[in-house]
Design goal:
By secondary structure, this protein is of the alpha/beta class. It folds into three domains: 143 residues, Nucleotidyltransferase, domain 5, CATH 3.30.420.40; 142 residues, ATPase, nucleotide binding domain (Nucleotidyltransferase, domain 5); 198 residues, Carbamoyltransferase, C-terminal domain (DHBP synthase, Alpha-Beta Complex), CATH 3.90.870. The chain has 17 helices and 23 strands. The chain has an eight-stranded mixed beta sheet with strand order 13-23-22-14-15-21-16-20, sandwiched between helices. Helix 4 crosses helix 11, helix 5 runs antiparallel to helix 9 and helix 13 packs across helix 16. The structure holds fe (ii) ion (FE2). The site of fe (ii) ion has 7 residues, from helix 4.
Length: 553
């Protein structure tokens, strides 16, 4: 009998993941459906968003539902309401099991289980996870008395039949005791960009700075525990520094220097705890999850500056990925064995929305719709002529990186493209880097990279002889956060790269997520066309169609 399991994450970046046997039917973050970034889970999500978008939720009876929470406490009344909504909207049976998973354990299941690694050390680092009293993993140190304590960094040794927690760092939730790498980076981000989910902006900004000009102060690291030194505490908590961007050159430089110092302190401490974990676990392979695993520059140092030989970071290492962790945990509970599902591509969005893309019926009469006989040749032509193209095809990416199913593509040889895409399409800061995509076998030609990077998890130096040839995708420090692609992962994108190389001699394209200002990545054809309408984007490719606001020569 084929079992069906649903994983639910109702925290920040709320998401669901539906498994059937050994395949992922659909995984999607709520933000893609509501068009609000980092949208938290709430009552009514299934009725209003998930079930209409993932009809498979009602097609087969669900054998288990696994939900993870963080420090949110649900009242019994609220819990009852959640349960009633699931019963009302899904196909459940009297035998459907309801399970709960604590937050870091859900991150672990999202990283180790689909990694394909037989054994691995696992590191989970975010701002905060579950209260220690709610853990459903075994932890040899036992649970301390203080009910306020919550997990902030967790370290494990994993084998197919073992998931041992080696250590955890806990925090009582008070700002006077603030600790851990996730909270550090969160506070650093608030210095420049208040609000949620702006950590990526700090990474971009940091590359323009000189850490030493701001401070050489490090974080305090003892084995696996990280705390803020008095200097960092005073700068981020007691009398927080605040920068407003954009600013004049001098103030921009001061902000960039401070960001660089924070990034450096973060990276050094991360490398230290990884060294500790390598020794404590006795293993050479590492899986890393939690929101901090989105820090590409730091991830690169895990590859270069620690003894770990292999590193797996899932495509959605933040909270959205815990829905998959929950589902894999549930499947293991039902079958008694580790799931054989591997997270090898990230095109896990609902099949129904993927199929609907190609219909693209409703466009304004003054717009132009063409159906070229040779679609990818025509797209190449548009790119070579300096057009920006939004590509939406098939199932969307589940993680925050667009990997060629919901991507904006452009010619990386044009230096003006960086400012044009950042300012006129994405409405974001000029210093945000734009990424390259390249065929896996050609990556070493352009980049100092050893091995695949299919989910943009780390950065690589662009070879000096190519920095002026593909300037739109080279960050100011000479690096790029690239995606490597194979014909198996994405045949159309691979083919397009080949065509572009035949035309230009360069096998690299600019690839950034398909969205306008302050919005999540597009999900539907309607989202893509709205982006075309409201931005300077030149065309949208919804195979087999190309849609533009006017005829493009
Ligand atoms: Fe998390």
């Amino acid at each position: 009998m084929t079992l069906t399991v649903l994983g639910i994450n109702r925290t920040q970046d709320a998401s669901i993941c539906l498994l059937r046997g050994n395949s992922i039917v659909a995984m999607i973050a709520k933000e893609r459906l509501t068009r609000r970034k980092h949208h938290w889970g709430a009552l009514g999500d299934f009725e209003r968003f998930y079930v209409p978008s993932v009809p498979e939720l009602r097609e087969t009876p669900i054998d288990a539902i696994v939900e993870c929470f963080s420090t949110q406490e649900l009242s019994p009344h609220k819990e009852q309401q959640y349960r009633e909504e699931l019963q009302r909207t899904l196909r459940l049976t009297p035998r459907t099991r309801f399970l709960r998973l604590s937050h870091h354990f859900a991150h672990l299941y999202s990283a180790y289980d689909p990694s394909g690694l037989e054994e691995a050390a696992v590191m989970v680092i975010d701002a905060q996870g579950s209260h220690l009293r709610n853990l459903n993993e075994r932890w040899s140190s036992g649970v301390p008395d203080d009910p306020r304590l919550r997990e902030i960094m967790s370290f494990y040794r994993c084998r197919p039949d073992e998931r041992t927690c080696l250590a955890k760092q806990a925090w009582d939730g008070t700002m006077s005791q603030v600790a851990g790498l996730g909270m550090f980076y969160y506070l650093l981000t608030q210095t420049f960009f208040p609000g949620e989910g702006n950590e990526g902006k700090v990474m971009g900004l940091a590359s323009y700075g000189c850490a030493e000009r701001a401070t050489t102060e490090r974080l305090r690291v003892e084995d696996h525990q990280v705390s803020l030194s008095e200097w960092w505490k005073s700068s981020l908590v007691d009398a927080p520094v605040r920068y407003t961007l954009p600013a004049d050159d001098e103030r921009f430089q001061q902000a960039a220097d401070f960001a660089a110092a924070g990034q450096r302190a973060f990276e050094d401490a991360l490398v230290s705890v990884a060294h500790w974990l390598h020794q404590a676990s006795g293993l050479d392979q590492l899986c890393f999850a939690g929101g901090t695993a989105l820090n590409c520059s730091a991830n690169t140092r895990l590859l270069t500056d620690t003894p770990f030989q292999r590193l797996f970071i899932p495509p959605a290492p933040g909270d959205a990925g815990t829905a998959l962790g929950c589902a894999l945990y549930g499947m293991e509970q039902l079958t008694g064995v580790r799931s054989s599902i591997r997270w090898e591509t990230d095109y896990l969005g609902p099949a129904s929305s993927g199929e609907a893309l190609g219909r693209a019926g409703d466009i304004p009469p003054e717009w132009h719709r063409e159906r070229p006989a040779r679609l990818w040749e025509r797209v190449t032509e548009l790119l070579v002529s300096g057009r920006t193209v939004g590509l939406a095809q098939g199932r969307s990416e589940s993680g925050p990186r667009a990997l060629g199913h919901r991507s904006i593509l452009a010619d990386p040889r044009r230096p003006e493209m960086k400012e044009h895409v950042n300012r006129d399409i994405k409405g974001r800061e000029w210093f945000r880097p734009l990424a390259p995509v390249v065929a896996l076998e050609e990556a070493p030609t352009y980049f100092d990279l050893d091995g695949p990077c299919p989910f943009m998890q780390w950065t690589a130096l662009v070879r000096p002889e190519y920095r002026e040839i593909i300037p739109a995708v080279v960050h100011c420090d000479g690096t790029a956060r690239l995606q490597t692609v194979t014909p198996e992962q994405n045949p159309d994108l691979y083919h397009l790269l080949q065509l572009f190389r035949e035309r230009t001699g360069i096998g690299v394209l600019l690839n950034t997520s398909f969205n306008g200002k302050d919005e999540p990545i597009v999900e539907s054809a309607a989202d893509a066309l709205r982006c075309l309408k409201t931005t300077a984007l030149d065309a949208v490719v919804l195979p087999p169609f190309i849609i533009s606001k006017s005829v493009l020569d």
